[in-house]
Design a protein that fits this description.
Elements: H1 13-32, H2 43-56, H3 63-88, H4 103-116, H5 120-123, H6 130-140, H7 145-170, H8 174-178, H9 180-212
Helix pairs in contact: 1-2, 1-3, 2-7, 2-9, 3-6, 3-7, 4-6
Amino acid sequence: MTQLALGPTWLDPDFLIGNFGLPGVLLIVFAESGLLIGFFLPGDSLLFTTGLLVTTGVLDKPLWLVCTLIVLAAVVGDQVGYLFGRKVGPALFRRPDSRLFKQENVEKAHEFFEKHGPKSLVLARFVPIIRTFTPIIAGVSRMNYRSFIIFNIIGGCLWGAGVTLLGASLGKIEFVHQNIEAILVGIVLLSVVPIVIEYLRARAQSRRAAASAPAVAPTDGSVPPP
């Protein structure tokens, strides 16, 4: 394995797994799934690398056990995020920005949740940053608890087990071993595509809204040019 040359070394999946093992993976999945401080953690590439290392024997744990524990960590993380959102409520939207907290992230997650409804809990799992704040927003919005549990479990299984199994399956291919760094970089870049698309879409909407806004009549009595 080569270290992922993207970001600080302590966020490299190989470094994290090599130093903290499976408990470290579970803690990161838990934090990224619902704690405000977990939005910057490398969830997708970490799960992919975990599956790959299980297949190659570097991580000496049964694949079924690893997937089960990862899903549990993801589901419990979202659960904590939901309860935090219910307790904090609107105060979250008044919290000032800091180095680890940006109000913009909360607003984007809120828009995502309002647009997609309960299924956002599944879709958000595959979108960095959004997946951290969406369960919190669900709690703020006081989403029906039974619905939350159902979509939380579905999302946790599809993301937690799905990405890990993908890494385990591709880990059997020699090409993957020879180009693992490029593949991990690709996963990171692919995971931010939804954010870029959403940003461009919002920017285009703002431009259209500005272009369609009626011109303001001058206050000095003069006639505006044609």
